[in-house]
Amino acid sequence: MKTAADHLLKFPNARPSTVAFIERRNAVLAQLQRGGRGKALGSPQIHHSSIHILEALVTGPEKEAFEVLHPFLGEELAKAVIEFRSVTKKAKLTGYAAKLLLKEYTKTGDMRAAAEMQIFMSWQGFKASWYFNELAKTGQRHPNAPRRGADMADFTNDIMGAYYERVGVSSRHN
Predict the structure, then answer these.
(1) Spatial separation of the C-alpha atoms in residues 122 and 51, rounded to whole Å
(2) Per-residue pLDDT for 14 more than 80?
(3) Residue 78 in 3-state DSSP?
(4) Per-residue pLDDT averaged across 70-88, rounded?
(5) 125-141 b/e with 16+ CB inside 10 Å = b?
(6) Which of 92, 94, 49 is nearest to 68 (CA)?
(7) Which one, out of 49, 72, 81, 150, has a CA that is 20 to 30 A from the CA of 167?
(8) How far apart are CA 15 and CA 104, in angstroms?
(9) What are the angstrom distances between the C-alpha of 8 and each of 4, 87, 90?
(10) pTM
């Protein structure tokens, strides 16, 4: 288990919030290993889910953010977005900020892919336009995205298709 001291040795300029998070996480994990809910972890009567661990780790505004993100992103990705935000930005992710984030994720048509790209690209925030620009840079095309960078053949086909529809011609040469 990585300690806050280990992290500071590797990253001397680490943010205090990152160090505090590592200390808090390690304290909770140690408590759970000791049987923090009155029973040993190996006991068959107790079932620890990651929700219980999250409740111990995340309090206040981050808990509200989890409640907003969880139904749309799933438990693992919602926790990853919250943890990522706490490491990359000094401001905690609040419930309201999570709603704004979801609004941008929704514009992409694939909320999970948008959240994953935000983490992968190390973006502190997220705008749908950034997502589409990144897809365009890598030559990928999102199924719900507007067509970008169409070539002349696509342009011609679109114009001719509109023309044939207007004229009412049932068959055309492709």
Answers:
(1) 25
(2) no
(3) helix
(4) 88
(5) ebebebbbeebeeeeee
(6) 94
(7) 150
(8) 27
(9) 6, 14, 17
(10) 0.50
